[in-house]
Batch of 3 targets.
Target 1
Amino acid sequence: MAANPRSAPHMNQRRSQRIVLAVPLEVSGVRFNGQRFVERTKTQIVSAHGGLILLRETVTAEQKLTISNLQTYEEIRCSVVDVSHTQDGMNEVGVQFVGGSARFWRVSFPPVDWSPRNPEAKRYEKAPGAADSTLASPEKK
């Protein structure tokens, strides 16, 4: 039995930040029997290198797909890197762009070394006159 690749220490290291974002897509590919398929879906998570999508279609690791962004009408080739089956019968599919395209999702991803502690990170400041978020104790009579 093969080891679970998700448990490998390097699997926790990401090349770019992941963002929860629903982008409408049309995904196309070729089944093992040679027939083409096309399915409309949306992203669950995106990154500068690919994303996570839900598909009804059964796909396998390393299978090549074409993703069409229905907001920009751009297409990009990608490769399936991971497939998990959900309880409702859908396939959670991790895809990676072939050749890369950090701008495909139209999101500006922070640099790899970015952290909320960086001086460039915006800090939350309470607006003047805004109520404190702590609960006030009831007045004593």
Note: The CA atoms of residues 124 and 130 lie 13 Å apart.
Target 2
Amino acid sequence: MEELVNRMKVVLATSFSFYLKAQYYHWNVEGINFSQYHQFFANLYEEIHGSIDQTAEQIRALDAYAPGSLKRYKELSEIMCDENIPSAAMMCKNLLDDNQKLILSLTFARAEAERLRQFGLINYLEGRIDIHKKHHWMLKSVIKG
């Protein structure tokens, strides 16, 4: 069970980092298509934000404590901070790469949940994987534009 808890903590920290980066980009995007990017990033970070509490609650349901400090998230996250302000196209590319890391983290957690026959958690993780696959094709489509 410890491995599953650890994987879920990585999912939580990586999700929070992805949320924070998308919101950071939302605040700072510029350019000719500002309005479209601004709204796209808002939709993205709002959806991710809505999942963070549910992910923490899944950790608590495993009888473990959810991490909640920025220091701990930085230690656990698969996503690096972005302190520069890239172009809108590069923002999308960065988020596409980070989304792939998050899908991988979710997939590892799902495999461990399956091994332990944690069926409710499997369902939750599969739902999150499906949502991030949608984010993937949307980000990829924006980059092609």
Note: The chain has five helices and no strands.
Target 3
Amino acid sequence: MRSSFVTMAVVATSLMGFGCGKANGPELAPVLGTITLDGQPLPEMNIQFAPEATGGSPSFGGTNADGEYRLLFSQNRKGAVPGKHRVEITPRERKTDDSGNPIGQEPVKLPAKYRKPGALSAEVKPGANTIDFRLDSQPDPADAKKKR
């Protein structure tokens, strides 16, 4: 887990040094929202917005106990590039104690329909954005048709 934190820190630091023709990097729009499953907040989730058109750097966030998130583009910059994004929501890696034993509850496993590539998307507009994800645990009707 420590190595992935170090890797993320290195990536975030290196991203800060690269702009897209502007001194401070691309224009960003603030993005926040809530992730729920069957009306209940989803804590301890990671969320990533990856721009579709530009193929540029993604923005990341994580949910708190109330399922709320805010996106970061880099360590010092909040928000996401305006435009359409592929969205991925994944459970955070379960915390462990010094002996490697799991701490806390087992993370919520998202229904299969939300784990498919391209299942979730969002459009970030210039200015402030509130983008909520109201997920449900009902089976995907397309999956039911495939089984017939």
Note: The domain at 28-147 is CATH 2.60.40.1120 (Immunoglobulin-like).
